[in-house]
Request: fold
Amino acid sequence: MTYRIFGSELSPYSVKVRSYFRFKDLPHEWIPRSPAVQAEFQKYAKLPLVPLVVTPEGEGIQDSTPIIERFEAAQPSLAPEDPALAFISALLEEYGDEWANKWMFHYRWRYQPDVWSTAERIARQMTEGQGALAVAQARAAVAKRMTARIGFVGSNPTTEPTIEGSFKGALALVEEHLQARPYMLGGRPAVADFGLWGQLYELATDPTPGAVMRASAPKVTAWVHRMLTPKNEGPFEAWPALAPTLMPLLKEEVAGLFLPWSTANTAAIAAGQKSFEMTLGGTAWSQEPQRYHARSLAEIRRKYTAAKDAPGLDAILRESGCLSYLSA
Reply:
């Protein structure tokens, strides 16, 4: 009873799902998406995106969070028993998937060493040993296409300082948090780990942000390696033990940047705007709205509504500054 994961080593959401399957010890085959498997991929995929999980029964499942939720519904292990902490974990997963992706995409396609490193790896996957000329042509095409798309995640000269400042600030906060524990919520991984890790794994493999991580965040770098094959090393911690170093991440990053941006993005879509401007973290921000993120915000708000009566949750969210964005 083996699952198949169609993915890419260069996709944060693909490696996120693969890490989860390894943690759950689910039998699976990792299939890099390439022209050789495109027909099989299209047979099961509803969208042209990885990851795609194909079940032994022949069902195709896409989108990393629903994939994990599907398996957790049958065999839960990632959610703490405390429902307040379980929601905080889901919120951090959302932050990783939706905001930290900006760090990854920005660094990958903004700086030349990163552009060519990534384009080379994608080209080799696309051409499958067709020869040096085919790789070179594919590399140039990938670099041209992807650098032109950098604005899709909001990366531009106006937003660059905010994106890079957020990456470095979050890196310092997570580094401090991981001084006392192997995973974000204690001795075992939670969805918070998988959501953040997918992006930070990709950043670690790219030249520019990878050098920043190795120089300034050894605990985060060790965690990135640990999450390749995550294990249960102990129980989840209670909120009072986590709060001294996790609350700053919620305040500065989730409430300070991610949720205000996501709320403004959703409002711009509702108003039919082609672009929106705001002040984010004290600096200017402007970009075209991202439609998927409006659905994503609606989903985390739905999860909050389901969990809002959990003892202590509103107090945590109020102190962090997150509550007003989630209860809107």
